[in-house]
Amino acid sequence: MTTIGIDLGTTNSACGVWTKDGVKLIPNRLGEILTPSVVSLDTNNELLVGRGARQRLINHSDRTVATFKRLMGTDHTVFLGRMGFNATELSSLVLRSLKEDAEAFLGEPVSSAVISVPAYFSDNQRQATRQAAELAGLKVERLINEPTAAAIAYGLHEKQEGMFLILDFGGGTFDVSLLEYFDGVMEVHASAGDNHLGGEDFVDVMVADVLARNGLSQEAIPPLDLQNLYLQMEGAKRKLGPGQTLTLTLGKKTVEFEVTQDWFIEICTPLLLRAKAPIERTLRDAKIPVASIDDVILVGGSTRLAPFRAMVGRMFGRLPSCHIDPDTVVAMGATIQAGLVMRDEALDDIVLTDVCPFTLGTAAFNEPYVDELSYFPIIERNCVVPISIVRRLYTASHNQSVVGVKVYQGESPNINKNIFLGEIKVRVPKGPKGVEAVDVRYSYDANGILEVDVTVVSTGVNKQLVIERAPGALSDAEKEAARAKLAGLKFHPRDGEENRMLVARAERLYESSLDHRREFVGKLLDRFHYALDRQLPHEIEEAQTYMKDMLDQLESEHWF
Amino acid sequence: MWPWSELGLESTDDVRAIKKAYARLLKQTRPDEHPEAFQRLHQAYKEALASAQPKNQHPAPKFGEPAPSEPIQTPEEPSAASKLFQPLNDSGNTPPPNADPFPGQPAGQQPLQVNEPPPDNKPFFDNTDNKPESLENTKLTLETEPPPQTDIDPAKPVPGEKIFRFIRGGRSTAAPPPIEDTPVASYRMRALAFALDTIAIAVALAIGQFLLTAITGKAGLPLWILAPATYPLAALLFEGSRWQATPGKKLLGLKVVNRELMPLSKRHSLGRIFTFVVTTALLWKGIWLVNAFLRGRLLHDRLSKSYVVHVSNLP
Q1: How confident is the model at residue A98 (pLDDT cuts 50, 70, 90)?
Q2: Primary place of residence (chain B) (predicted)?
Q3: Residue A359 and which of A220, A301, A480, B205 are 20 to 30 A apart at CA?
Q4: CATH number assigned to the domain covering A353-488
Q5: Is residue A7 annotated as a catalytic residue, yes or no?
Q6: A23 to chain B, minimum CA–CA distance in Å?
């Protein structure tokens, strides 16, 4: 039985396995380490995951979906063709694809995994991730926080001791963690984050600004142009520099647009400012002076943004370091954690302690103000986990027969501003107010999963939290149904995948080109289809190589 | 003496030695294997570190002594409040020196009762002990936290529409469970639609027969009597179409949808009509009565899991 480490990202995912020689990242069926977290369903209801699916984002945007990690823990449904999927199901498809790749690479079945999640993921989102793994046939050994995973990779890879501030700025989330590594102890001092701040937001802002400048709205231009605009902006964001002129097709108009660093900074400053808040909060919570931080480490693709680096540099008065590839460092850390869980000898002397990044509490009447429920924290943020805390609550009115314990996550004194996780109701014997009591126990484990149980003191009746309709959570029946639905979907045959990807890529190039260039791509396509039709393996292989070379040459715009 | 006994050290200011001892002990008490022992160890470690660096530390009130009367001004180490409620030594050893949760309170009123055996050796704490002052103090410790900055508070749930914008690809995104929040059409509307449809069909049949009679010259039984029986056929034809409604429903602005507020598939539509025929046939005499009490979710709607809603309620 093998346990793999998986980084399930907003934009890209990756997985690895712990071997005797350390971390080995597993290439996917196309030989690449990073698998884009994109799912596409073709007209035969066959699934494409990864680069092939990503290529279809333009031409088949109604059957392809990306960045669905941002919907984790919600009930939203995305329709691919006629089939609706929620984020949990889509994530499980990516996980299934990674699992199959790992199985093909290792030559043995993979049944369990350590999966990384953003440190600031809420309980709902963690549960959803867990269920996604379950649907993909993977047992989750551990959910590890992404910055922690990155820190493990750095700490163990570099054998460097000291205090690190990890800034994990990915496609969809921003996480900050302050860690200390000494004598084989990896201690997280504090974490904070923003679940809706990432590289995709920058692209969103750029697209919105371009459209606003041209007096257009997202609905006004055809979906194909919109997807193209997204890709062009994404490419521009990556190449951000002295200035580049893009030709944009916006419905009926075609405009020349110059992307400059100044423009980018101007429109993205609000987002960059948002990134400051979690950094400050982490430092404040950890009570550690900035001077004692030994290194600021950047993780995640979005940390490549020059304005972000400049901001971090100014905040800390030093250059942040990022000598491990920021795209794969989390997967490496998750893999090391998988090795830890399997208790590989090489890792036996490492212990990791993590914290709960947010406050968990309930709502209670705060005497003497009994007309309004106020927030009552039980597990305070940034306390070390696993932790189990009991608080006692009393009945608030005479002859009260039911006590409802609402479970919230968040920092606001106003319960409506916190995230509602669920509710437990227990019956208590009637009596004068303040006599009957319930013991509310919150247990937060190392996976970041919360368990709540409520015991009535006088009767000893005990009830555990079953979240009735937590957004995104599936009941057993729904889980069965989802499993049946997903089992009906088959991945493209392994050998076919690469061909389809090439065809999709060529089709995209065909659409974006003109004149003889377009003609040439058309000929390439014909030739490739001809080779495919003949079904001779060596010919197909030859055609593949040729096609790949030609497309690489043609694609001067590096959108992908 | 606690916390040094926990770490197996003599009282020291040597941070390095404290860390070494902690690291050594931690490897025997891994957090995932011995959660409670780990919490104790970690608490002792933090305590030892704090006393080794006196400049970062508030003078911790000794246990049992009245604490300074002013509320805490600067937040202590953020997890301090929660650590107070972590498991005490279950062997009944001396509790940690800062076990006083309400430093603003005279000792006599403290709600924390260490001598009373807590329920199954779990930490015991009560919060609503009819002591308003103690509760206010709880509030005070809360208020020393930095005020949440509402516009950038990451814990704030993002409204649904905002999430939509983040998503790329996919034909459309809908937020289920939509039908729970969508009012279905009332029984009166439905009955009116049915009446309109039946009249329309009857008229159509009558005109058809009139034309037929004009052509063939033979008069048969009046066909319009068959209007109610023809209704299911017409419904099948119209509800499965782009209209998603029979002409009567269309006129009243009603639409037939499934749980996701999407049009019914052909099979679903057939199922709906089938259940309509069956329920009508079985309950013909009482049908109007039964359906009138179902709050707009008529028998065949319920059985076929379809919904009839007003167009204005659709997204």
Answers
A1: very high
A2: membrane
A3: A301
A4: 2.60.34.10
A5: yes
A6: 23
Query: Is residue A396 within 8 angstroms of chain B, CB to CB?
Result: yes
Strand (E) or helix (H) holding A364:
strand A360-366
- Other C-beta atoms within 10 Å of A426: how many? 18
Of A175, A252, A248, the closest CA to residue A206 belongs to A248
Q: Which of B19, B135, B148 shows the shortest C-beta gap to A183?
A: B19
Annotated domain spans of chain B: 4-52, 179-313
Nearest CA to CA, how far is B193 from chain A (Å)?
Answer: 30
Q: In Å, how far is A549's CA from the nearest CA of chain B? A: 29
Does A69 participate in catalysis according to the annotation? yes
Q: How far apart are CA A292 and CA B16, in angstroms?
A: 15
Q: Are B249 and B205 spatial neighbours (Cβ–Cβ below 8 Å)?
A: no
In this structure, CATH architecture of domain A1-195+268-341: 2-Layer Sandwich (3.30)
Catalytic (active site) residue A101? no
Inter-chain CB proximity B166 and A75 less than 8 Å:
no
Distance linking the first and last C-alpha atoms of chain A: 35
Q: Do A63 and B79 touch (CB under 8 A)?
A: no
Q: Is the ipTM of this complex over 0.85?
A: no
- pLDDT, tens digit, 9 for 90 and up, residues B197-234: 999 999 988 888 888 888 887 767 777 778 888 888 88
* CB pair distance less than 8 Å for A380 and B26: no
Q: What CA–CA distances, in Å, run from B80 to A441, A448, A464, A509, B220?
A: 18, 20, 27, 60, 93
